[in-house]
Structures are given as C-alpha cells and as structure tokens.
C-alpha cells in the first residue's frame, strides 16, 4: 500500500513539473511576441494582464497537484481525515503565495499587499490551529498510552472498545456496533475510565 501512495506522489510531482515548464514556455512566448511583433506594440500595456492570467490559471493547477502530493505523502502513514486536512492547509498556503505573486506582478501598493498577506496568514493560522492541536494530542496519547486498542473505556460520556488511535481521532466501537470518532484534543485532560483492559496489556501503562 505504501508503494501505491509513493507512486501517486511521484505522479503528482510529475504534473507539477509539467505545469511549471508549460507556464515558463507560455510566459516566454507572450514576452517574445509583444517584443518582436509590431502589431502588438500598441497593446504592450496588456502584457501584464496576460501574464497574470497565465500565472493564475497554471499556478492554481500547480497548487492542486502539490496539494495532492501532500495528501498522498501523508496517506502513506496516516488516515484520510488527517491527509485531507493537510491537503487543505497546503492549498490555502499556496493560494496565499499565489496572491502575493500576483500582487507583485500588478504592483499593488504596499498597504494592500500587507493586507492580503495578513489576511492570508490569518486564514492559514485558523486552518492549522485545530489540525495541529489534534495532531499534538494524538502524539501525546501515543506516548502516554492511557489506553490501548482493544481496551473498553468510557470517555466524554461515550463507552466502547477502542478500535483505533489515529493522529486526529480515537475510534470507539460502542456496544450497539456504532463507531464514534472522538477528536484527540477533546480526550486529553478528560477523565478516562478503563472498564476492561485488553488481555496482555500492561497494568502499569
């Protein structure tokens, strides 16, 4: 399975390379055309808009391929929700960079550029805060090991057998057969009742 994800990452990075080369070629063609074709001389002021459109369109394609590469990279060792969250964060961060490039291209005044950068940073900060909190909580649970897979526990008014401890959530299987995904940051600091510990688990954990 890990090899499949690695192959997908290589495919995503290959797409990124193709889009970058295509963008460079199209920008060179546009610049060369406006410099060498007399008929386009009077419209040279529109060159920056053509460049902006090319950078926006192909830049978005590059961001899409890069975010997919991040997703497939994380999926090699984590679950889908975590990988999807990291993909979203990568995409938001990439859009912030793309907006900065476009602002520089169109020579946006420093105040507006600062506003765009601040807003982008704020969005990325809010997007990453919850993910990082849950990821750190998942690492803490993995190190402290207050419970293990197979233990019957009660936490946050939920009772069930621990089916999986992921980076972002802990999965409980309730007595009625349902699966409950509890965010790890909600578990840390809560009272955990061990109703029955899996046979073979150490009582000293």
In short, what is this structure?
With 205 residues, this protein is α+β, with helices and mostly antiparallel strands. The chain has five helices and five strands, in the order ααααββββαβ.
Q: What would your notes on this structure say?
A:
With 205 residues, the protein is α+β, with helices and mostly antiparallel strands. It has 5 helices and 5 strands, in the order ααααββββαβ. The protein has a 5-stranded antiparallel β-sheet. Strand 1 and strand 2 form a beta hairpin. Helix 2 runs antiparallel to helix 3. It is elongated, with a radius of gyration of 25 Å. The model has no long low-confidence stretch (mean pLDDT 80).
The count of strands amounts to 5
Please give the count of helices.
5
Unreliable stretches:
none
Query: Strand order within the widest sheet?
Result: 4-3-2-1-5
H and E order: HHHHEEEEHE
How much is the average pLDDT?
Answer: 80
How far the N terminus sits from the C terminus, by CA atoms, comes to 31 Å
Question: Biggest β-sheet, characterized?
Answer: 5 strands, antiparallel
Question: Over the alpha carbons, how many angstroms does the gyration radius reach?
Answer: 25 Å
Fraction in helix: 55-70%
Q: How much of the polypeptide forms β-strand, as a percent range?
A: 5-15%
Shape: elongated
The helix-and-strand class reads: alpha+beta
Show the helix and strand layout.
Elements: H1 2-36, H2 47-75, H3 80-105, H4 110-144, E1 152-155, E2 158-165, E3 169-173, E4 179-183, H5 184-187, E5 193-196
Antiparallel strand pairs: 1-2, 1-5, 2-3, 3-4
């Amino acid at each position: 399975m890990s090899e499949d994800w690695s192959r997908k990452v290589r495919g995503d990075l290959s797409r990124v390379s193709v889009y970058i080369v295509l963008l460079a070629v199209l920008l060179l063609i546009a610049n060369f055309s406006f410099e060498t074709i007399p008929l386009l001389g009077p419209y040279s002021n529109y060159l920056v808009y053509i460049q902006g459109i090319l950078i926006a369109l192909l830049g978005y394609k590059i961001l899409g391929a890069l975010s997919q590469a991040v997703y497939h990279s994380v999926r090699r060792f984590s679950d889908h929700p975590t990988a999807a969250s990291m993909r979203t964060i990568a995409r938001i961060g990439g859009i912030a960079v793309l907006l900065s490039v476009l602002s520089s291209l169109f020579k946006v005044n420093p105040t507006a550029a600062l506003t765009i950068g601040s807003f982008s940073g704020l969005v990325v900060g809010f997007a990453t805060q919850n993910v990082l909190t849950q990821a750190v909580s998942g690492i803490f649970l993995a190190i402290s090991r207050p419970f293990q897979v197979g233990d019957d526990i009660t936490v946050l008014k939920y009772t069930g057998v621990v089916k999986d401890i992921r980076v972002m959530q802990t999965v409980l299987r309730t007595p009625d057969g349902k699966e409950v995904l509890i965010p790890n940051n909600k578990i840390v600091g809560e009272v955990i009742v061990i109703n029955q510990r899996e046979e073979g688990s150490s009582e000293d954990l």
